[in-house]
Amino acid sequence: MDLKSKLVHIAQDMRQRSRAPYSQYRVGAAVATADGAVIGGCNVENASYSLTCCAERVALFRAVAEGHRHFQALAVATEDGGSPCGACRQVMWELCGEIPVYLVDGKGAVRETTSGRLLPAAFDADSLSSPT
Ligand code: THU
Asked: Which atom of ligand 1 has the smallest separation from the CA of 53?
């Protein structure tokens, strides 16, 4: 199975682990590390709504916590093939740089974009190095 299919498949699987009792919007994500490992995540909601963490960030933070620092692609699975939120776009850009992002819907249709296209004119580490 190629990397894209593997990521899509694992992101879809991770949707089953979603904890979304408030929104019912189940999201799964999977990120491929530079060395070919695949780490999954799902959204985890909280009664104090703002404490919720999105699937993409759960996958990425989990990967970092497991010792990975470089990433090559990411997939996100939802029922409607929805796009990542702004916070996740920012974290993806910071941790992954320019990588392909696969957005898959409940029927398995995949829309392909990139982390850079999702966050044009990003604020990042380079923005902090310009003199005042
Ligand atoms: N959600 C994600 O997991 N990823 C996104 O990029 C968009 C939103 C989750 C958060 C919350 O649990 C639910 O979807 C509805 O916003």
From this structure: 10
